[in-house]
Design brief:
The complex is a heterodimer of chains A (about 325) and B (about 325). Chain A is mainly α. Chain A contains twelve helices and two strands; from the N terminus they run αααααααααααββα. Chain B is globular, with a radius of gyration of 22 Å.
Chain lengths: ~325, ~325
């Protein structure tokens, strides 16, 4: 088997693992933002969901219970965000940042009081965690040229949440573009006044969008702590929420481009892990710092040069008030 | 209102005067950002302080730093409230301690993992390279592929010191061994990113490594977990982490921070405390390779014997390990 092909498989495998939480969070954020609510609190919600998942999974021993808790916490926080900036028309960026800051501290404080481990949860074992699933025939087809390694190396052996993510992408696109609810959601983000005139509640639609976004953000948080890793460590979201938001803007608030943006970021990350300390032809060993800056450099280049203008939903960031 | 104010002032004055009046031994410790239950570096310091309290019956003051700006303030508060000795845990407290030590020349300060040159500061360093050398030998001997990995946390000289010792140890056993080394990042966030740690470890496994050494704080948790998931061997750091995943934990490079804290308190109490720089290595039991029931089966007698011989040679000075920070 060709060595560079194998490297590609390994890179793709790593890309899929890193991309999954980004995709979930970004698409979750898409619901909120397309309905006109800025969702900068993704980072905090993801962190809180990761903590809830690990804490409940550790105490109950069930990964499903952890997942449920993650979704519940994330939805509640989304509703809180909604209460501040839909019902009370507060500033959406301030509310979202407040969530981020409060949760960064709160997860550690609660974790410390609960488990007494400096904000970490116990390591999860066995059924408290979503382990990788080997799809049928993965071992048998491994030697089939080209397709075999792709099936066995990339598609098989991921955890259940990765497959859920794969299913969520078309589902999101369908919901947003092919259903009545999706049409209203998008309309609320562009011209809420028109939707209101048609007799549809702007607030309710926005709340629904936030709940959907909360569910997906909960999935992404659970992915971090009980699928990809086995336990919560403070600040473990490590900026992934912001990265997801960047991917969303990068993808112009549309599902497929957003997915591609997430994959691009994840690929840059995978390649970064690979290139460190490796001697390349001509240039030799590249300094670590340069490699680590690569994803960001890539983002700036692409955003500046290739993507063109990203046009936000018109009513984003504007609280809706009926005419008085 | 006025009376309340007067009362408050007098209480404050009393509180300020009291410790000075009572010339008793008052030790204090300031933990760093990981917190005293981090299962690693800070917890070792906490254990040392607890041991002192248990054996002498003298209580100590403590503070857990939760953000960058608190370090200097915490150290100053301890000194102002009449602590006899203040132990600062972690290299990042050096700057704060240097300032405060100048303000309180009569208070003793002990800094762990960093150096401050002041007549009233004791700096305790560890020869991490010596301990890493031993676990590097273990890694090279346990590896079947002849390829081993290293995952560092933040890219700082201290972590390079771990890495260099590890590489020298591995090469000492097998000059042809191939070593993949990765750093998690160049900001303090690199200590808390188990996801990245796990990806780095997996990329090393994919390249053929079958033993990986994590010197990366909480990021290491992801590394050890990845090794368990993939059925490879991992080496822990600072505290004995063998119990985390018995069966896939080859060993841990233990740094006896507990002994350093306990020793500083005891010496200060007995009046034998001295300022200056202490460097604890294998000879002083400051660093060691952990061997217990959890990894007993993974370390063969042949390995143990060879590592033991190297340990004796390092102590005797016939085997030199390069210290990255002294290069």
């Amino acid at each position: 088997m060709n060595e560079s092909f194998l490297i590609l498989i390994v890179l793709a495998d790593s890309t899929v693992r890193v991309a999954a939480p980004l995709v979930l969070a970004a698409l979750g954020g898409m619901f909120a933002e397309r309905s006109g609510v800025i969702d900068i609190g993704l980072e905090g919600k993801m962190l809180a969901a990761a903590f809830a998942a690990a804490a409940i999974a550790a105490t109950s021993g069930s990964a499903l219970a952890g997942l449920g808790a993650a979704i519940a916490v994330s939805v509640l926080l989304s509703l809180l965000h909604g209460f501040a900036c839909i019902t009370h028309r507060g500033n959406q960026v301030v509310s979202g940042m407040a969530l981020n800051i409060v949760l960064a501290g709160l997860t550690v404080v609660v974790g410390n009081a609960w488990f007494g481990r400096g904000g970490q949860t116990p390591q999860l074992e066995g059924s408290a965690r979503f382990a990788p699933i080997d799809l049928p025939f993965a071992a048998q087809v491994q030697n089939v040229p080209v397709l075999g390694p792709i099936y066995a190396g990339i598609i098989s052996g991921q955890n259940i949440l990765v497959y859920v993510t794969a299913a969520v992408v078309p589902l999101t696109a369908w919901l947003l573009y092919r259903t009545r609810f999706g049409l209203r959601l998008r309309a609320v983000g562009e011209t809420p006044g028109a939707v209101d005139t048609a007799g549809i509640s702007v607030s309710l639609t926005r709340y629904r969008a936030l709940v959907l976004g909360g569910v997906m953000c909960g999935l992404s948080g659970a992915y971090l702590s009980i699928a990809h890793n086995a336990g919560f460590v403070r600040d473990m979201s490590a900026g992934k929420g912001y990265l997801a938001l960047a991917a969303l803007i990068f993808g112009k608030w549309r599902p497929v481009p957003t997915l591609l943006a997430c994959i691009l970021f994840a690929f840059a990350d995978a390649i970064q892990s690979r290139l460190q300390g490796k001697a390349l032809p001509i240039v030799g060993v590249i300094p670590v710092q340069f490699i680590q800056a690569l994803p960001y450099v890539l983002t700036v280049l692409l955003l500046a040069g290739f993507v063109g203008r990203a046009i936000a939903p018109k009513a984003i960031g504007v609280p809706y008030a009926k005419e008085r | 209102m006025k009376s309340i104010l007067t009362a408050l002032v007098s209480v404050a004055l009393l509180a300020g005067i009291q410790p000075l009046a009572a010339q008793e031994f008052a030790p204090a410790v300031v933990f760093d950002m990981g917190g005293k239950y981090d299962k690693s570096f800070n917890e070792a310091a906490f254990n040392g302080a607890e041991r002192f309290k248990k054996e002498t019956g003298v209580a100590y003051r403590e503070f857990e730093v939760t953000n960058e700006t608190q370090r200097e303030q915490a150290i100053r508060n301890m000194a102002r409230r009449g602590a006899t000795i203040v132990v600062g845990v972690g290299f990042s407290q050096a700057a704060g301690m240097e300032k405060v030590a100048a303000e309180f020349p009569n208070v003793k300060f002990t800094l762990i993992d960093g150096v401050v040159v002041k007549p009233n500061v004791q700096s305790i360093l560890f020869k991490e390279h010596e301990g890493s050398f031993l676990v590097g030998m273990a890694a090279a001997m346990a590896s079947k592929t002849g390829k081993i990995g290293f995952v560092g946390g933040m890219d700082i000289p201290l972590i390079r010191k771990f890495q260099l010792g590890y590489e020298e140890g591995a090469k000492y056993v097998d000059p042809k061994v191939e070593i993949f080394a990765n750093m998690t990042g160049s900001t303090p966030a690199a200590w808390n990113d188990p996801t990245r740690g796990s990806e780095l470890a997996r990329s090393q496994f994919d390249r053929g490594a079958d033993v990986v050494y994590a010197a990366a704080g909480a990021t290491g948790i992801g590394v050890l977990q990845a090794a368990k998931d993939k059925g490879k061997l991992a080496i822990g750091v600072d505290s004995n982490q063998n119990h985390l995943h018995p069966g896939t934990m080859l060993t841990s490079m233990v740094k006896r921070v507990d002994l350093a804290v306990y020793g500083a308190f005891m010496a200060a109490k007995a009046g034998t405390w001295k300022s200056g720089v202490a460097n604890l290595g294998l000879a002083e039991d400051g660093v060691a390779m952990a061997l217990d029931a959890d990894n007993r089966k993974l370390i063969t007698p042949a390995m143990e014997e060879r590592i033991g011989a190297a340990r004796r040679n390092i102590i005797a000075g016939t085997l030199k390990v390069t210290d990255y920070t002294a290069k």
